[in-house]
TrEMBL record:
It comes from Physcomitrium patens. This is F-box domain-containing protein. Pfam families: F-box-like. The gene is LOC112283268. PROSITE patterns: FBOX. Residues 53-99 form the F-box domain.
Length: 360
């Protein structure tokens, strides 16, 4: 009853709370406040002195946290510009953790965060060397928001800590930070990269809600930049293995026919590895009958890439279960480490990317 009483008092004092429908029909609360003063009032001690000055801060703690937790990022930053108390609340990591998880967690991994921290360290060192501290956080709000009254560039107190989730979120959202990730079917689905996933540096464009992907050079090729990469073609690197290093496979002993895998492959020794989707197949001597199959107990593991036609040199490859490292040659490329796919989600992503025609 106390919560309802404060709630209706808030509404009657000139504030409004509206329920809006956003993407996919998911409801989200948007708080529109009409303040009678330029600042938030602290807890009202004498109601007679302030008969019409009910503050959002007068809400019970649980209700206020519930409201702030339902605000979209831009609205949460708006609330942070109202007063010092709300600024502290709206910059807290526990509010931004859910926002970050909802939008970025699937494609941004620990490697990207470490790279961002490294750049912050370099900026701090550069600022100390020039005796002019850098302002790495002035751009996110000034370039993203249409609210003319919100300009924190001249307000150092409004700038969030550089190691906060709020700053990390807007570093990604603004598009000024290139972060490492992986791209499926690179270069607009080039036939030579179908059902593969390669390392790249990504840059977000909030206007088109898509990304630029910057791929490292392949041998004599220069850096390739692909524009308009959609969210469904991206993922955070599942492993911390650099693109030119061999992944140490830890699943070879357990592999058996029917297992879904990703295999490192590169055209020659100068190229970085890409991850290619395949399935563990039966040996040539096995008829595929589960009652008689012994493929899981022999040393040779056959990898099948059924996106290629029967008879194609890319259709099958054999590796040694016990001594496999990198196998191959300049004609057929080099097969590196193997990663077993253990979730339906990972497998379904590859199936959605399946080519419409069988490859030669």
């Amino acid at each position: 009853m106390s919560l309802l009483s404060d709630w209706f008092a808030l509404i009657s004092s000139g504030s409004s709370l509206e329920l809006h429908k956003i993407d996919k029909g998911k409801p989200q609360w948007r708080l529109g406040m009409m303040f009678y003063k330029r600042r938030c009032l602290k807890k009202v001690e004498n109601v007679e002195d302030f008969p019409e000055s009910m503050s959002v801060l007068d809400l019970p703690e649980l209700a206020l946290e519930g409201i702030l937790g339902r605000l979209p990022p831009a609205s949460l930053c708006q609330m942070a510009g109202v007063c010092q108390d709300l600024r502290k609340r709206c910059r807290s990591d526990h509010l931004w953790q859910n926002l970050f998880k909802e939008k970025w967690a699937r494609i941004v991994g620990p490697l990207a965060f470490h790279e961002w921290q490294r750049q912050l360290t370099l900026q701090a060192e550069l600022g100390a060397a020039t005796e002019r501290p850098p302002r790495p956080w002035g751009w996110p709000l000034s370039c993203l928001w249409r609210f003319s009254w919100l300009n924190i560039q001249g307000q150092p107190a409004a700038v969030p800590p550089l190691d906060s989730l709020m700053a990390w979120y807007w570093a990604l959202e603004s598009g000024s930070f290139w972060f490492p990730a992986q791209v499926y079917n690179r270069e607009n689905g080039h036939v030579g990269f179908m059902l593969s996933c390669y390392d790249a540096e990504l840059n977000y464009d909030r206007i088109t809600d898509s990304f630029k992907a910057r791929y490292p050079p392949h041998g004599p090729r220069t850096i390739v930049i692909e524009e308009g990469v959609r969210w469904e073609r991206l993922r955070a690197p599942p492993l911390d293995t650099p693109a030119h290093d061999l992944h140490q496979s830890d699943c070879l002993i357990e592999l058996q026919p029917g297992d879904h895998v990703e295999v490192q492959w590169r055209r020659n020794k100068e190229f970085p590895y890409g991850w290619w989707y395949g399935v563990v197949g039966h040996s040539e001597a096995c008829d595929g009958n589960s009652r008689h199959c012994r493929c899981h107990s022999i040393e040779t593991v056959w990898l099948e890439f059924s996106q290629y036609t029967l008879g194609s040199r890319w259709r099958r490859a054999a590796i040694n279960r016990k001594s496999h490292r990198e196998e191959g040659n300049e004609a057929e490329g080099f097969y590196g480490g193997i990663r077993k796919l253990r979730t339906k989600e990972e497998i379904n992503i590859w199936k959605r990317l399946w080519p419409t025609e069988t490859l030669e």
